[in-house]
Design goal:
7-stranded mixed beta sheet, about 45% helix
Length: about 500
């Protein structure tokens, strides 16, 4: 597949040599994917130097924090930080375990790992010239922020392309990080308007100085999450099972987004036979019902099937309403909501504090996990893993909109009680499908219209993804890229 970042040799020696010189001058060093999967293997001198670096600074050393093993202030932990939600909150016996992505550096979301997985291979194969080209990051919020952060550290211009209707906090972050104001490109619409982003990227791609890193078709995104996120999730489960050996991993639940994170579920499935659960917005149920619409669960996209979604290895599709995520965001972030959760000591105060940090897509993942637990009749020895994709810090402006729209009289005790009952206690199992092979074929075929007809992917390349041998064939790329990263580092670190 051309233009999708899968090359394993140096494509342009001049670009490669120039980039080596730029990185040498900047004293930049790249982490390998193996180091990001197991940060204990990061060289001691790098770890020591990191102690004096702000995790949110545009510092090259922060590339070595682009992993799941960060503490809240940037220290390194042995097990990725996570929360086991109690049945008193979820209403189910199964252990719903939420791994916290707001520990990632700079953007406080795990999309920064995906962007590193896309740009680093292009750098060490001479496919991208940081001195002459711009990295274009199309996104509905977090991926473009990750791309801008990684680009800035690597000394190139990163351009964010995202809908104008995304949260004000996303734009505020971008304004602090981009090189020029024009490096923020606002497209029409909001979360549901991915096609408009594609159209803008097609326009930008006409200039040879622009390189599009489309998260929906960049297999580096898939591979970084398969190898790094998958292993991190397995470490969390292993730590739980050390204390309770009878635990069984039953599934990994994630909103589809670009489908990169879902690759972690495939890694876990290969080890434990657990199920891969893809989640979408009920207001735009593309996978479930071939549907369309508008929603506001920011960061999960819709209206198409990502090229990097291994549909034929997905087991369940379910949908969550943005009304539910909006309402629970209000419940978790208002005084009346906190009092409701703390009533009669049902939910520990420390957990309420954690719930305040959940962004909209994080809440979506939790609700989907509850639906799966109820649908599958999971018990107290069963574990579902999911992720809190980003933090509430990105949604303060959205909370204002939610309260003004839905609770003009104020979010009081009655509203809090109703919200908890309707959108948490009474979660149902509607809009959930155990995928048969025919269902997988239907969803897979939907991707044809986006990738072959609209985006120009060859039919042969599109169809190749139907076979699991294609996806297994991608996995050795990481070891090859790691070897190239090590050689690149040797050149940049030499006198």
């Amino acid at each position: 597949m051309d233009k999708l970042g899968l090359e394993t040799t140096v494509i342009d020696q001049r670009v490669y040599d120039d980039t080596v010189e730029r990185f040498r001058a900047a004293k930049l060093r790249l982490p390998t994917f193996a180091q990001l999967a197991e940060p204990g293997t990061i060289p001691g001198e790098v770890t020591a130097a990191l102690e004096g670096v702000d995790r949110d600074a545009a510092d090259g050393l922060n590339l070595f924090r682009v992993h799941w093993y960060n503490g809240f202030v940037g220290d390194r932990v042995e097990v990725p930080q996570h929360i086991v939600l109690p049945g008193s909150l979820t209403g189910v016996d199964a252990r719903i375990v939420v791994v916290l992505a707001d520990r990632f550096p700079m953007i406080h979301a795990h999309k920064v790992l995906a962007t590193y997985g896309c740009l680093a291979p292009r750098i060490v194969t001479g496919q991208f010239d940081p001195g002459r080209q711009k990295a274009i990051w199309p996104s509905t919020g977090n991926y473009c922020r990750g791309g801008v952060a990684i680009s800035r550290i690597m000394g190139c211009r990163g351009v964010a392309v995202l809908p104008e209707g995304m949260s004000r906090e996303r734009f505020a972050w971008l304004e602090r990080w981009v090189e020029e104001p024009d490096d923020i490109v606002r497209t029409e619409g909001s979360e549901s308007n991915v096609k408009e982003i594609y159209d803008k990227c097609a326009e930008l791609e006409r200039s040879p100085e622009n390189v599009i890193f489309n998260q929906f078709s960049e297999f580096g995104n898939h591979l970084a999450h398969y190898f790094c996120t998958g292993r991190a999730m397995d470490t969390v489960f292993g730590a739980l099972r050390e204390r309770e050996p009878e635990l069984r991993l039953r599934g990994f639940v994630s909103a589809t987004g670009s489908a990169g994170t879902l690759a972690a579920g495939e890694y876990l499935k290969s080890l434990h036979g657990s199920r891969v659960v893809a989640v979408e917005a009920l207001e735009c149920p593309t996978l479930l019902y071939n549907g369309f619409g508008e929603h506001n669960i920011q960061g999960i996209g819709d209206k198409h099937v990502p090229l990097i979604h291994n549909v034929m290895n997905t087991d369940i599709v379910t949908a969550v309403s943005d009304r539910a995520t909006d309402t629970l965001f209000a419940l978790f972030n208002t005084d009346a909501g906190r009092r409701q959760l703390l009533r009669e000591g049902r939910v520990p105060e420390a957990l309420v504090t954690q719930l305040e940090r959940f962004g909209l897509s994080s809440i979506c993942n939790v609700l989907a996990a509850i639906k799966v637990a109820k649908h599958s009749n999971l018990g107290e020895e069963d574990v579902l893993l999911t992720v809190a994709t980003d933090g509430a810090e990105l949604y303060a402006s959205e909370l204002d909109k939610i309260l003004a729209r839905d609770y003009p009289g104020g979010f009081d005790e009655a509203a809090a009680a109703d919200a908890e009952h309707r959108y948490l206690r009474a979660v149902d199992t509607d809009h959930l499908l155990d995928l048969s092979n025919r269902d997988r074929e239907r969803i897979f075929n939907l991707g044809y219209f986006t990738w072959v007809e609209q985006q120009g992917v060859s039919l042969e390349d599109f169809v190749a993804r139907r076979d699991q041998s294609f996806w297994r064939g991608l996995q050795p790329l990481l070891a090859t890229w790691d070897g190239m990263i090590e050689e690149f580092n040797q050149r940049t670190l030499s006198a």
